[in-house]
Amino acid sequence: MHIPDGFVSAPINLAAYAVSGGVCAYAVYRAKRELGERQVPLLGVTAAFVFAAQMLNFPVAGGTSGHFLGATLAAVLLGPWNACLIMAIVLGMQCLGFADGGLTALGTNVFNMGIVASLGSYLLFVGIKRILPEGKSGFLVSVAVASWFSVVLASAACALELATSGTSPLRVVLPAMAGVHVLIGIGEAFITTTVIAAIMASRKDLIWTLREAEP
Amino acid sequence: MKGRGWGFALVGLGASLLLAVLVSPFASSSPDGLERVAEDKGFISRAEEGEPAWNSSPVPDYTVPGVESESVATGLAGLVGTLGVFLVTLGIGVLIKKKGAKPGEGV
């Protein structure tokens, strides 16, 4: 879902750069106060895993592929603001180092796949976890649903930007983008839930959203 | 205390490197969701018009230039990318903690 140069208009790209820059600055401010010394290696390895897993495109319907996003994984592991930071670093390096996503659209890509996906899915995760019964399965179901939504929400944001830019009418691009990403989201939910379940089984203490729940 | 955080990070980094180096050459090369929609709805040409704003990526399209085998070029891209992202993020994390710690505060 990395937007190249030319898809989104300059005003929208500029506005997204401003919003994404502001959110990242706030995320740094939060990390200064709250990021634990022991979370620094986890920050690094989560970003590395997100980058690696994003390279692994899996086939979905009709000659189309999708790949892992990782925003929900990062948000569940390290909290929503650290997730924004991780996604911004990964997207920035993909753009500058690997020509994935246009430089003019970097702010927009960080907005969609970083901020919308991280903050949006984190809010959903917290909400769903609250209504489900406590315990491991309720936690993992919340992870699965939230991570599925992270991809769909990011694709809807992307469609809105494409429509506002005059690239494609909303009634065309929104159903098309959401339609594909509803399928890609299933892969996202599978990977995110598997990784979180594995960490729960081995190093439960590393999961920020589990520690928050315990007094 | 410190060792425990690092132990997990190194195991996770190892697993990520295995994925990036050994599995990435087998990844699907079909267009992704956005590319597919752009092709189907006829706006893919907007990306192809004109030069990209940034044209100096050392590893364009996750393929290390000058390597004959495509699989090796992709695997190498995964190696440098995953290590690079790990080190950059770690560096940013260390910088944030350093500047965030108040003088005299134990870290």
Quick gist of this model?
The complex is a heterodimer of chains A (215) and B (107). Chain A has helices spanning 10-34, 39-54, 71-78, 80-98, 106-131, 136-164, 170-202, 208-213, and strands at 58-60, 64-66.
Task: List the topology elements.
The complex is a heterodimer of chains A (215) and B (107).
Chain A: H1 10-34, H2 39-54, E1 58-60, E2 64-66, H3 71-78, H4 80-98, H5 106-131, H6 136-164, H7 170-202, H8 208-213
Antiparallel strand pairs in A: 1-2
Helix pairs in contact in A: 1-4, 1-5, 2-3, 2-4, 3-4, 3-5, 3-6, 3-7, 4-5, 5-6, 6-7
Chain B: H1 2-23, H2 33-40, H3 45-48, H4 70-100
Overview of the structural elements:
The complex is a heterodimer of chains A (215) and B (107). Chain A has a single domain, classed as Orthogonal Bundle (Arp2/3 complex 21 kDa subunit ARPC3). The mean pLDDT of chain A is 96. In chain A, 75% of the residues lie in helices and 3% in strands. In chain A, helix 2 (39-54) packs across helix 4 (80-98) and helix 3 (71-78) crosses helix 4 (80-98). In chain A, strands 1-2 form a two-stranded antiparallel sheet. With 215 residues, chain A is mainly alpha-helical. Chain B has 107 residues and is mostly helical. Chain B has one domain (17-100). Chain B is 61% helix and 0% strand. Chain B is built from 4 helices and no strands. In chain B, helix 1 packs antiparallel against helix 4. The interface between A and B is large, with 70 and 67 residues.
Task: Write a concise keyword list for the protein shown above.
heterodimer; A: 215 residues; mainly alpha; Arp2/3 complex 21 kDa subunit ARPC3; two-stranded antiparallel sheet; 3% strand; B: 4 helices
Mean pLDDT of chain B equals 89
Q: What structural category characterises the helix and strand content of chain A? A: mainly alpha
**Counting H and I runs of at least 4 residues, what is the number of helices of chain A?**
8
Succession of helices and strands of chain B = HHHH
